Amino acid sequence: MSFLFPSILWGLLATSLPLLIHLISLRNTKTVDFSSIRHIQELTHDTIRKLKIRQWILIALRMGLIAALVLMIAGPIQMSESTWIPSEKESTAVIIIDNSASMAVTEDRTSYLDQVKYELPNIIAGFDGLVNLHVYQTTPVRQLYSGILEKGMNLNTENWDITQSVGRDKIWSVVDSILKSVDGSAVNRECFILSDFPSAPPTTFSTEYVGWRFYCLGQKQLADNVSITNISAASQIKLPNHLLKLNTKIENMGPIEKRNIPVELYLNKERVGQIVSHFQPGRSKDFLFQVYPGKSGIIRGKLEIPRDDYSLDDQQTFELTIPEQISCKVIANSQDDLFVLKTVLESISGKDRFLDIELKVMISIDRIYLDETDVLILQDPKLLSASAVESIKRFLSEGGSILWFSGENYANLTPLIQSNLKLPVFIEEVTLDGDSYFSVEVQDRNNPILQELNLRDVETVLPQVFRYNKVEKNKRHKMILALNNSDPFFLEISHSGSQIYYFSSPLDLRWNDLSMKGLLIPLIHRLLILSATDEMNTALVEVGESKTIKISKDLLNKEWSVVNPSGDKILIVPNYNQESLVINQINELGSYEVFADDDFYTAFSSKLSPFEKPNLRATSNEVISVIGKNKTVWINPESDVKEAITTRRHGRTLWRLFLILAIIIFMVESFLSRPRPDAMKNQL
After folding, report:
1. pLDDT at 84 over 60
2. Antiparallel, parallel or unpaired: β 110-111 and 106-107
């Protein structure tokens, strides 16, 4: 046991006062003459002995009462092996405040972050001596205060601009970087982490910070939270005035059942659907909304559920792109090769001129301009120069797509061209004699290309193949249609976020009869729609991440700006080399609008990081087991923060125990010192 104020222990000398007073009273006894000593003689020897014992007990109690009061005032503390008593030397203290999205959870209409702000003065008030204090927030990492704190100094924590963020914090990597930047030479080093602890620290954490002590202020378990966890189009193919299907997922992350929860869908600020359902604790439900967008262009959407203790995941905005017109460039070796593709494309375009078609005959493709092109169709090209390959690669990186029909010239393409475009490697040309043919089989029935083709039986409209290029596919190649010998006929190849749709046989009746089948027109239609859909620009982006918007070269010199959900306008300088906009200021939830010279260009929405789900939390045991029991203090939100810190820093205070002891002694002394009626009667 130790004492916070050991000098007060000199007061224990006062315990001798009752004894001294008693001895002095005995010394000053006077003899009094009585006319009769009859009553004194009646006192027995036992009675006199009992009175003396009682008298000495009272003296002992009074001495004990004084001693208990002195010890209480001296601040007794119980020491342990893990107790840290700061030395008189300078100390270092770091306070790290988690202001990420998950700290927006409310309890009794007060967020976790506000509760942390309330405890800050209590933490600072407990510092002793000279403290080198550093205070940080995590999202984004920013220093709020740095300076020398002396005992008795009053810091106004309300002036610290601690704002609620909707971004993700990597709490332990932030702690790691902050502690490494702080001077750790002081003998006494304390780190206070005020967070909901979405994860436990890495296993190496304890060995890296041997001399540090950690105080972890945790938060209560989330009670009421229903969350929107997903919204996406059921099909990549989106057309004006056609049925649009949207997949949604709602999850109850709280421990209580939620009944009659409405899930509402809005398109272009109009409510177009509503579903009311019950949600069991820890369970999720999938819902399918079917709506008609009504027009082409950028469709603004919003999914919404009632507000609860965590309101950030109760609403999700999104954007969908429905192409109005598709620019299609076709390159072939001759007019005969163009004829079939021209007929198919004009049939798809119709009277509404859905397609902007450009037909070219190029035996040798040296230069190719694709700035205004959405889809490039190559019918068995003979030669591609290095410049043309680079143009195609840039076209793919900007979101364009390619339909590649390989034929007799595919074998002449160099491996360099094939590797740059990630095309399958040529093995050999396979030709059947007579009336023999290969049939075609569906390999991926769930692929969006084959869905909603409006064909009663796809197998009946599949082509017969008489000649084809045998190729070697890899993991990048997704086989959609195959020959009955398992060789690829139709591959989907991912390249720079776009697709190359590769056919191992051209649109030529000497190779196959695809041009005569009912599959061709709807298949090409679907491929064009998929290729021209601007999914890259409108895709959701996590808060805190950067967003890349592809733009054409002729728009680079325009004045670009982004309007965030708060309505603030931010100017953006295009990346001229990549022909894109890189938007880094994604720090709000909601819809962002992109403008070129004040003309609307596109829009996208932000979303919460999945790591900011409030139900994803590390337990106190998980954190303590990594850092170390003797180095960690876990403070529950119901606890007295100041007392918990003081207890570990100085030991467990025992003043209450001595106060109770003093009260008990006082009560016993009062009882024993009270005159007893039977004794008085005997004396009479």
Report:
1. no
2. antiparallel
Lowest-confidence segment of 21-30, 337-346, 355-364, 617-626 by average pLDDT? 21-30
SS3 509: coil
Same domain, 435 and 482: yes
pLDDT for the residue 348: 85
Whether residue 86 lies inside any domain: the answer is no
Higher pLDDT, 373 or 684: 373
Domain boundary residue, one of 532, 554, 580: 532
What is the predicted pLDDT for the residue at 57? 81
Residue 534's pLDDT band, with cuts at 50, 70 and 90, is low
For residue 87, what pLDDT band results from cuts at 50, 70 and 90? Answer: very low
Which of 266, 137, 166 has the alpha carbon at shortest distance from 542? 166
Distance CA 241, CA 589 (A): 29
Question: Are 421 and 274 found together in one domain?
Answer: no
pLDDT at 684: 47
Can you tell me the distance from the alpha carbon of 385 to that of 209, in angstroms, rounded to the nearest whole number? 59
pLDDT score for 408 = 93
Q: What span, in angstroms and rounded, lies between the C-alpha atoms of 169 and 96?
A: 12
- In 3-state terms, what secondary structure has residue 343? helix
Strands (E), 504-589: 541-542, 547-550, 560-563, 569-572, 580-583
- On whether both 285 and 255 belong to a single domain, the answer is yes
The DSSP line for 638-653 is: TS-HHHHHHHHHH-EE
DSSP, collapsed to helix, strand or coil, labels residue 226 as strand
Check whether 386 has a pLDDT greater than 50: yes
* CATH code for the domain of 135: 3.40.50.410
Residue 617 lies in a domain: no
- Provide mean pLDDT across the span 379-390: 91
- Burial call 352-387: b when 16+ CB within 10 Å, e when fewer: eebbebebeebeebeebebeebbbbbbbbbebbeee
| Beta strand segments in 240-325, E | 244-252, 258-267, 270-279, 284-291, 297-304, 315-322
- Give CA–CA dist 376/350, Å, rounded: 20
Same domain, residue pair 131 and 235: no
pLDDT tens for each residue of 329-345:
999 998 988 999 999 99
H or E stretch covering 527: helix 520-532
Nearest by Cα to 22 from 50, 69, 57, 68: 57
Q: Which pair of tokens denotes residue 599?
A: 């003309």
Question: Quick one: 376 and 505 in the same domain?
Answer: yes
CA angle 656/658/664 to nearest 5° reads: 105
Domain that holds residue 158: 91-221+622-650
Q: What is the pLDDT of residues 492-515, one digit of tens each?
A: 998 877 889 999 999 999 999 999
Q: What is the mean pLDDT of residues 268-297?
A: 91
d(CA 287, CA 262): 12
Mean pLDDT, rounded, for 70-83: 68
Question: How many domains are contained in the chain?
Answer: 5
Residues 363 and 485 in one domain: yes
The reply to whether omega before 6 is within 30° of 0 (cis) is no
Residues 108 and 196 in one domain: yes
For residue 416, count other CB atoms closer than 10 A to its CB: 10
